[in-house]
Amino acid sequence: MCGICVSRRSLLALGAAAALAGCSQNAETGRRQLAFVSDEQLAGMADQAWAQVTAQFRPVRDPAYHQRLARIGRPLAQASGRDLAWEFVVLDSPEFNAFVLPNGKVGFFRGLFDFARSDDEIGSVLGHEVGHIVARHPAERVSQELAVQAGVTLAQVLLSNGEDGGQYAGEIAAALGMGAMYGVILPYSRKHELEADRVGVELMREAGQDPRAAVSFWERMIARSADQPKPPEALSTHPADARRLTELRAVVSA
Length: 254
Ligand SMILES: [Zn+2]
Prior knowledge:
The chain is mainly alpha-helical. The chain has a domain at about 40-135 and about 185-254. The chain contains 11 helices and 5 strands; from the N terminus they run αββααβββαααααααα. It has helices at about 1-15, 40-55, 65-80, 110-115, 120-135, 135-150, 155-160, 170-175, 190-205, 210-225, 240-254; strands at about 25, 30-35, 85-90, 100, 105-110. It has a 3-stranded mixed sheet, with helices on both faces. A two-stranded antiparallel sheet has the order 1-2. The longest helix has 18 residues, at about 40-55. The two termini are about 30 Å apart. Mean pLDDT is about 80; it is low at about 1-20, about 160-165 and about 230-235. Bound molecules: zinc ion. The site of zinc ion (ZN) has 7 residues, from helix 5 and helix 9.
């Protein structure tokens, strides 16, 4: 997809087309990304999604859970440089999962929370989640989802003329009202997961946490999933596989 953005940019250099709204360069990752939605639109979708998720999975009653999660998460949020209304909540479900929404709400399931053996292991998950925000993955994913819902291909959108999404602006605006909110809680791609791992390690370092905990945590996650049936992946997924661990080890020891 970003290859298309780059070639579009080449076209611009040739003076062949108008400015492409909705494709911007991310300073953190260096990739060009689709972004048809504004931060305000994203935050609105995220507020709705958060209300739905916390109605389905209630926060745990013991405030000590949330206090510990917030204590670990706050320095990571600060290191992110993203001025959001960050909130860290442990949700009362045995699932091994966590997710972040583009309004700064982080949901961390009790199953995963209790599995962690140290603050830094919890920090490694939170660093990864905050990393998705730093890398602006929600905007990119929602934009992809919008293009699909609008019934146009990304190539069509990117190659259309005009400003603000070109001739497909109407379709995209319509799709915004068609449950695009769901896009903020769809699983991330493998590329996004690896990118969030890498940014997460950087955030942990800045926050004074030990990123080696990310490696030990994933080693135990992989050992666990080896003898467990795969749980349903309702929210953002974190595939525990060998390749991911290999890349994580390389980033941590770099
Ligand atoms: Zn992730």
